[in-house]
Amino acid sequence: MALEYYLVLSALLFTTGVIGVLIRRNAIIIFMCIELMLNAANLAFVAISRSLGEASGQVFVIFVMAVAAAEVAIGLAIIVSVFKHRQTINVDEVNSLKG
Amino acid sequence: MSKELIVVLLVAPLVGFLINGLFGKWLKGNEKLSGWIGALAVLVSLVCSIIAFTSLNSGAAPLDETLYGWITGEGFAFNIGFRVDALTAVMLLVITGVGFLIHVYSIGYMHGDEGYTRYFAYLNLFVFAMLILVLGNNYLMMFVGWEGVGLCSYLLIGFWYEKQSATDAGKKAFIVNRIGDFGFLLGMFTLFAAFGTLDFTTIFDAAEAGNFQQVFGASTLVIATLLLFVGAIGKSAQIPLYVWLPDAMEGPTPVSALIHAATMVTAGVYMIARSAVLYNIAHTGEIVAWIGVLTAFFAATIALTQNDIKRILAYSTVSQLGYMFVGVGVGAYASGIFHLVTHAFFKGLMFLTAGSVMHAMANELDMRKMGGLKSKMPITHWTFLVGALAIAGFPFLSGFWSKDEILHSAWGGSPLIYGIGLITAFLTAFYMFRLIFVTFYGESRVEPEVASHLHESPSVMWVPLVLLAIPSALIGLLLGWGGHESWFHHFTKAVAGFSSEAHGEASGNVILFMVISSVVGLAGIAFAWTRYSKRVPSDEPTGALHRLLANKYYVDEVYNALIVQPVKNGSHFLLWQLVDNGIIDGIVNGVAALIRFVGGLLRRLQTGLVQVYIVSMVLGIVLFLAYYLFFT
Amino acid sequence: MENFPLFLIISSAVKILIIVHMLLIGVMIMIWAERRVSGWMQDRLGPNRVGPQGLLQPVADGLKFMFKEDLIPNHVDKPLYVLAPAMLLVPALVVVAVVPFGSSIELFGETINLQIADINIGILYILAITSLGVYGVVLGAWASNNKYSLLGGLRSSAQMISYELTLGLAIIGVLMLTSSLSLRTIAIEQGAYPWQWNFLIHFPAFLAFTTAMFAETNRLPFDLAEAEQELVAGYHTEYSSMKFAMFFMAEYMNMIVGSAVVVTLFLGGWHFFGLENVGGPVWSGLISFGIFFVKTAIFLFVFIWVRWTLPRFRYDQLMNFGWKFLLPVALTSIVVTGALWITTGSRLVVGIGNVIAAFIVVSIVAGLLVMNKTPEPAIRDDDSQITPSALDAIE
Amino acid sequence: MNPEQILFILFGAVSLIGAIAVISFRHPIYSALSLIVTFFAQAGLFILLGAHFVAAVQVIVYAGAIMVLFLFVIMLLNLGTLSAKGAISGKLKGFAVILGILLAIEGVYIAVKAPNDPADASAETAIESVSTTTYNIGELLFNEYLLPFEVTSLILLAALIGVIVLVKRESQEES
């Protein structure tokens, strides 16, 4: 299997994530889409790691996962806080920054 | 004497200030502690000063050391450094000695005040600044201290900031001082331009060698010294900038005693004595002497007609400062400083006694409402009497020695100065005893409800009085016996510029001068006795001269008409209404309106919807990628 | 592997068949055993009517479950409701793939490992798959659309996440000394004699792992997710017939697999005083399988024993215990094992050091807890006790 | 079609369908489940790539921890099906989808046109050496990437504290 197939798949997954972020209103789903994007990047990392024949890419994936875990914990905590305050997590209803 | 000692000496009041200033809230419930922390800080300094003084006295070399570079640049360097010689040592003793007693006195005097800890914080800060002023080994350090004491003076005059008159007086003192400080700054600039440094040692050496840049031609030093003297005029309340000092009596009385009689106002005298070398070379002393003697005379005449105890003392201070300037002006630097020392003690004493009287009289200051206080307040009375006798030149009390020395030196400079000085001495004795007779003797004119709780002050207040009264009486005898051969002259001989007393060379019979001074002083006392032992000063001034004096020569009014009103009007019509409102506001509002208009257009982009932002982000990414992938 | 690996496929298929069936039968036996053992412990008989000693009782129950009407309540989220039992059962089944249940057998000139798949990250595989079990519980609970179920599900997810940490961390000491993630290697590395087994070297980690394993199987004293007295039946309140049976089976399967993993990791696998080497290549393999089987059975008895001995934790106790005792112990175990192993290289020192360190840590934590103790609230009735505390943990 | 290709197509298709399902399902729970499916498929891809360790960690971290948290929060907040009407207009949605498709085209273009690495030729042989990477990863992680590793641990610690601060009750006295 050539590298390109994995990279194409990675690009498609990433784009799916981007579209999800753009069109969904539920903060949690947006958050999931961000995870999806991170995973797409991970896939590219691992594929390229194999292509180059060394393990550095996999190490980066480990880092990405650790940071993603931290991010999820913080992000969900924020979502819970927002929900407590406003009884909604729809990003278009949380628009206090409207100019 | 070591560097560390000086650092401790300097830092102790700073520590006191920090404790009282930062932790004042917690100390509030325990004001005694706060007061004693302040006093203790100054006591530490006092002990250090005594150590420094004794080591100097036993022949140790003066200290002149740089601690570290403060501002260093291409071709110049300003350092934090100390210079401790005889002059500094004397000043240190006066500052910390009188300062300590006044701190102790304040513990009782300020009892129950709302801003108790604030007061002690300011007082400590003042001591710190004053110490910097006298310890610095360059003009910049001196200026730092100079401004520091100015700030503390402002803070303390306006200490009771709820009172309109107090804040006004504070502002007045600050603004008037600013004029003087401006002169001082220009003087410093001149010196820096000429010498490339502000270090005392370097400047004095170069000046003596004539090795400096003639920035103003031959009159460089003349201009520099005169500009510095402008600073001294402001700080030491000489004509024409003396107007702030009488108003400064709005502050708490111990402040008047410490700052506006004993220490800060003498900074000008100290500065000129410190710069003695320059004044000797520039021959500008005569101007100093003339300003001094005129101030002495005018202030004394004003004091004749005042009825407010503290105002009399304030004018008396101005007058005595004039004497000091006469001393340093005619080149008798040691005598001038000697008078500074004695004056610090007896004037501090008198202010504190005045405070004691105020304390007893429920803040009444008009002496026409007093009278006969002698029996009610014996200690206050006697200590005040000592002070008054000392200032009046009563034989063998301290004022007698120092004033006599100055007059004696003045004769050597100009007999006319001597003459005016002598008249002033007479006036001084007269108004002081007018004050005594009206206040302490005769019938009691105290209002009944005040009289009921008329009492002697608590020990924490009268002990310092006694402690000040003793040196007021004796210090002249101890230090000044022997005129120009005295211990004091001997001690300060080594200070730069002191030894070459160009004009002040003693001439004539010393004993004769002493006798003349004593007779004049006694005559003043006697005259006061005949006029006021039975009589009370009338409310209404009688005669033109009296009115003129009672209104202080209308100086305030003249200043108001000539300076304050034009400036106000100019500010109002030209600066405010035309420049500020018309031009500057126009520009500012125009810019704001423009931005508001543009912002209003851009505002629509700020939807508050995260996803709109992300869409624009992604759009950007897509475009960038497209550009790099397909067009490069 | 150039040729088509026919033999491998056949042998694997046979192994899978055997193991899965053993698991399923094991579940039945366990159900019977639990009821009998509990009866014995409570001084009563337990099921004894169907078959000899009541052995056929589970068969009867199974038949009943199968023929019962498969009821799907109206208010549930259908797809997930149906999916949930499978999501719990499948991980329980597949996790057994990497457990080595014996040494090896030689048949037809080929060596057959008594293990379905010896993958080199075996232990990670176990952790990964067991962590999936929670989805069955949580989704089943949520799909039931019932507040008791939901509470059970929430509790279960919080509990699983909390104890999974300990589960993972406790084995790291073992991994450090073995330098392998393969379960087979770990089993082989432990010698033939009990004092060479990991549970002595990593005693605190062994206890922590076992405890966390109990929690992962949702059994008493960790069965808050289905606490009958509080939540009716927790996450499977709305389930009946075969779906309920699947939940039921999954629990027992988890127990069996968990016991097997503990035996592999800590109790020397199939080793027992060299007995596993007796006999030829076929017999030794069968004997090792037998040893492993007996060890697992004994450990399963411990499971039952604990269940009928200890009362249930309160929710805050559960969290405190997991985070403040087990986790520190597991962490300490890692640090101490690493440090002592590098410096001394002696298993004895590591073993002693681990126990001492764990003792110190537990003492410190206990001391801190006692010092910060807020007055224990008076005993409240069950209802007011559960809901707020469950929400506590959530918020 | 060798087995690897078959598996790649299988896993790739599943992950892609899962990803699309994530953004299509109305209900967050279904989205989350789809995401789990995607993650699993990706773990499969990782195994295809010989990254067994990463695959296991992927399942443990994402499926075992992160997604459980997601589910937990969704259940906790009891987020039901979301109404479709909102401030985001359909026009913007359409625009967003078009943008996404453009981005996908660009991404695919990059992937296909990426300069073929000279090492690519040896990639096939490298698979075997890389397939036992747990050891390699450990070695890299604790030598070359030790500092990032420690920094990551700090990030996790910071996150831990941050979360506690975020969700802590204001006062402890009430209970």
Write structural notes for this entry.
The complex is a heterotetramer of chains A (99), B (632), C (395) and D (175). Chain B is mainly alpha-helical. Chain B is built from 26 helices and 3 strands. In chain B, strand 1 and strand 2 form a beta hairpin. The longest helix of chain B is centred in the C-terminal third of the chain and has 49 residues. Chain C is globular. In chain C, a hairpin with a 2-residue loop joins strand 1 and strand 2. In chain C, 67% of the residues lie in helices and 2% in strands. In chain C, helix 6 packs parallel to helix 14 and helix 14 runs antiparallel to helix 15. Chain C has 2 domains: 47 residues, no CATH class; 289 residues, no CATH class. In chain D, helix 1 runs antiparallel to helix 2. Chain D has 175 residues and is mostly helical. In chain D, 77% of the residues lie in helices and 0% in strands. Chain D has 2 domains: 84 residues, NADH-ubiquinone/plastoquinone oxidoreductase chain 6, subunit NuoJ (Four Helix Bundle (Hemerythrin (Met), subunit A), Up-down Bundle), CATH 1.20.120; 42 residues. Classes of the chains: A mainly alpha (99), B mainly alpha (632), C mainly alpha (395), D mainly alpha (175). Chains in contact: A-B, A-D, B-D, C-D. At the B-D interface, helix 26 of B face helix 4 of D.
State the main characteristics.
heterotetramer, B: 632 residues, mainly alpha, two-stranded antiparallel sheet, 4% strand, D: 175 residues, Four Helix Bundle (Hemerythrin (Met), subunit A), 2 domains, globular
CATH topology of the largest domain in chain D: Four Helix Bundle (Hemerythrin (Met), subunit A)
Percent of residues in helices of chain C: 55-70%
Give the integer mean of the pLDDT values of chain D. 78
Tell me the name of the CATH class of the largest domain in chain D. Mainly Alpha
Tally of structural domains of chain C? 2
Q: Give the fraction of residues assigned to helices of chain D.
A: over 70%
Q: Shape of chain D, please?
A: globular
- Report how far apart the termini of chain C are: 55 Å
Main β-sheet description of chain D:
none
The CATH homologous superfamily of the largest domain in chain D is called NADH-ubiquinone/plastoquinone oxidoreductase chain 6, subunit NuoJ
Number of strands of chain D: 0
Number of helical runs of chain C? 16
Q: Which structural category do the helix and sheet elements of chain C fall into?
A: mainly alpha
Major β-sheet strand ordering of chain C: 1-2
Order of helices and strands of chain C: HHHEEHHHHHHHHHHHHH
Q: Give the oligomer, counting copies of the same chain as homo and different chains as hetero.
A: heterotetramer
* H/E series of chain D: HHHHHHH
